[in-house]
Amino acid sequence: MIIEPIISGVVAKSAHPEGCKKAVDDQIAYVKSANPIKNGPKRVLILGASSGFGLAARIALTFGGADADTIGVSFERGPSEKGVGSAGWYNNIYFKQRANQAGRRAINIVGDAFSQDVREQVIEAIETYFEGEVDLVIYSLATGVRPKGDGEFWRSAIKPIGEAVSGASINLETQQWENKLLEPATDEEIEGTLKVMGGEDWESWIDTLVNSDSVANGFKTVALSYVGPEITHPIYLDGTLGRAKVDLHQTSHALNLELSNFDGNAYAAVCKALVTKASVFIPGLTPYLLALYQTMKEQGTHEECIQQMQRLFSSKLYGSETVPVDGERLIRMDDWELQPEVQAKVTMLLDQMNESNFKQLGDFEGFQQAFLNLNGFGFDEVDYSSPVDIEALSRLKP
Ligand code: NAI
Asked: Residue numbers for the site described as Plays an important role in discriminating NADH against NADPH (predicted)?
């Protein structure tokens, strides 16, 4: 079977296993040549480990100097009559192969991170493979739904709060700029987003680990967040997602107090805006991403998830005696994104950007390439005309 990229709006409906392997290998090669993580953790749990920041964190911690063993939780689908399966499914498989070849443990748990069942599987894996304790938990889930437990769901909405906001999205299927008016969220949507993307589930995970005596002395936990510059605040920080992130920041303070019993710490790390499966979904954010990629590449400060995560662990979380934080106790991985010279250029580009010039003014090519790469497409080294053996792929287990 030949696998072609199938894109519906901003969602990829197909993935190329060989390209996913290449993406994992490229990230491993990067961290092996980067500033290494010193005194890093050895036993790590990553919630949301199969793509974006979570996968990058897993690769950095295993191959970027810490030599960590990892348990990765993700929600992905394998090959079936419906299709070849998701990119994250193959990322799990190929990451594990590479980790095992390097003598590292890599346990993949594919299921709903909100569920009790997955919590139990994780505790059992910590008992079996980590001698009962974990040194670091990365919370990197991005999703739209969380089960309430009674057959009902909380659903997150990406909307402004209070007033309608206009913004553009770029449809990756048609490559067209689409102007949108986003109506303000209802109270139910605000509440749903808080439940799905706020700090409650992170706190519940850490409580579960504490209650099962699975937390090592000196334990750390980090959840990933976004803040962004003022131009993005109407759709992000002042909207439903931003409210959930502020809740996550507050949770980091509560958890930090709780973890002092273990000489431990909890942080929210504010990351850079990047093209991931989750972020292309945020209406109004794409023009900003195009302008940001263009500017940071020009200025030589552009990073992808893997550079962000390697820098987080090597120079912030484990790099020095004290973890550098801002006045709100946040780790700022968006420090380069928010530099005044970057934002001045981004604002200038956004002022001029419209439906007819966004491909010239912004880094549309880089944006599109990054999106294709997430799904295993667009790599020169992969022969996409060569048929893929689905039977053989079906036998690979995460
Ligand atoms: P992503 O979509 O690439 O990764 C999400 C991960 O969560 C995947 O491993 C997926 O399998 C897993 N997942 C989703 N639902 C799950 C469930 N019910 N059970 C188990 N696993 C589940 O997303 P990305 O962009 O890496 O986002 C991760 C975090 O980083 C989010 O909190 C996001 O807000 C934050 N962030 C993202 C930025 C961006 O520009 N992409 C910027 C700053 C922060």
From this structure: 76
Host domain of residue 116? 12-152+189-282+302-335+385-394
pLDDT digit string, tens, across residues 150-185: 899 999 999 999 999 998 999 999 999 999 899 999
C-alpha 387 to ligand 1 mean position (Å): 31
Q: Give the total number of structural domains in the chain.
A: 1
Scan for tokens 């090597």, then name that residue: 314
Q: Whose Cα sits closest to atom 24 in ligand 1?
A: 52
**Atom number in ligand 1 closest to CA 225:** 44
Q: Is 58 among the domain residues?
A: yes
In a domain, 162, yes or no: no
| 3-state secondary structure (DSSP) of residue 47 | strand
Residue 138 lies in a domain: yes
Per-residue pLDDT of 131-152, as tens digits, reads: 999 999 999 999 999 999 889 9
d(CA 341, CA 347): 10
Q: Which atom of ligand 1 is nearest to the CA of 72?
A: 9
Tell me, using a 6 A CB cutoff, whether residue 318 lines ligand 1.
Answer: no
Q: Is 364 inside any structural domain?
A: no
226 lines ligand 1 (CB under 6 A): yes
CATH number at residue 79: 3.40.50.720
Query: Active-site residue 384, yes or no?
Result: no
Q: Are 12 and 6 in contact (CB under 8 A)?
A: yes
